[in-house]
Amino acid sequence: MRLRQVWAMAAFAVFAQGGAAFADVTVSQSNSPELGMAEQMASLMGAEHATVGAIPKVKLAALAVGPRLTAPSKKGAAEPVVIRYDDSFLQAQAAPQGDAEWQCLKTALYFEARGETLKGQFAVAEVILNRVDSPDYPKTVCAVVHQGGRRGCQFSFVCDGNKDVMREKGAADRAGRIARIMLDGAPRALTQGATHFHTRAVRPGWAHRFPRTAAIGAHLFYRQP
What we know:
The chain is mainly α. It is built from eight helices and three strands; from the N terminus they run H-H-H-H-H-H-H-H-E-E-E. A three-stranded antiparallel β-sheet has the order 1-3-2, covered by helices on one side. The radius of gyration is 36 Å and the shape is globular.
């Protein structure tokens, strides 16, 4: 069946190009309909064979295979973010900048985790962004960071009464770079979806109820059930 389709397509192609593919086909003048039809079929089949034979093999192969699907272009596709938890990687990134969301995350990292290792700071950033993605918390970084309640602020620096001035330039730059990388879609591979953390020096009541997901530096991390 496929071969007949190829012959038909080939015949049409040659006819369209030259207009003379069937010039030698004749119709019998016999009064017998069956004989006439047989002669016409034989003549047409012979013409098809001649037509297919006149087409280059490359074109015949293309007709037999059919159109090929072109793979979608990868141009402009977002490359996966790959990070290393070291200062050389951070300093190799472009100077960080951003909007209010970036500033809020940078500030939270500076005041909550600037004394931690790089992994510890990245882990705190994961907690904040995990909360943003959770239906149980506000939908923006700034709202998560400044969220309060009857039991006080979620992040202690917000309610400690001190002015949020980042005096340590190196630590502020590091926090800004981490915030930029995380907001740009870096994988959250350290805390397994944690939404809470606390220092090893305290033991809040929810720590008994939430599963612990990681222990990094001075912080323990938990995921809200």
